[in-house]
Amino acid sequence: MLGEIRRLTxxxxxxxxxxxxxxxxxxxxxxxxxxxxxxxELNSLIARDKELDNLxxxxxxxxxxxxxxxxxxxxxxxxxxxxQKEVSSRIKExxxxxxxxxxxxxxxxxxMASVRKYTRxxxxxxxxxxxxxxxxxxxxxxxxxxxxxxxxTLHYNCIGAIEIPDLDKLPENNVSVHTRQGVDVHYAxxxx
Length: 192
Prior knowledge:
α1 packs across α2 and α2 (16-64) packs antiparallel against α3. The chain has 5 helices and 6 strands, in the order αααααββββββ. It has helices at 2-14, 16-64, 70-103, 108-116, 126-132, and strands spanning 133-138, 142-144, 147-149, 152-156, 175-180, 183-187.
């Protein structure tokens, strides 16, 4: 895990503009997907709440007209009221979550400030974990080429789970490589 955090800090410090693009693109996309799922659930719960009001109203009318017995009315009304309490509770939860997400303006600068603190970390500390990592998913172990491998997914605070590219394959900033006589390849940090 410390190795993964080191890769993250190396990416963040040596390729800051690329890292910012990854973080902002990922966090905006993940936040939008999460918001859409919550909004969809909220809309369906609001519709169900209205439907329960209508069902209860029809149930009452059927009881008054004598179409259903008082016992049946009592059982059904308890069932509908119980469901409506659960639905109302979940509606309030979702509304609160959606409001709090609106107030969380996630920026790459916030995450970068946390990451910069740990660029030279030698060991994993509880403070580092709490500041950088929201949760860790431990996946089922599996055999790959005769070796047992267990995959971990780190969900970072503010940005969620991101795929950190293989840093060995990224060119160093401002490096010149002499490939053959008279040909030099120059790698520079991206300006965009």
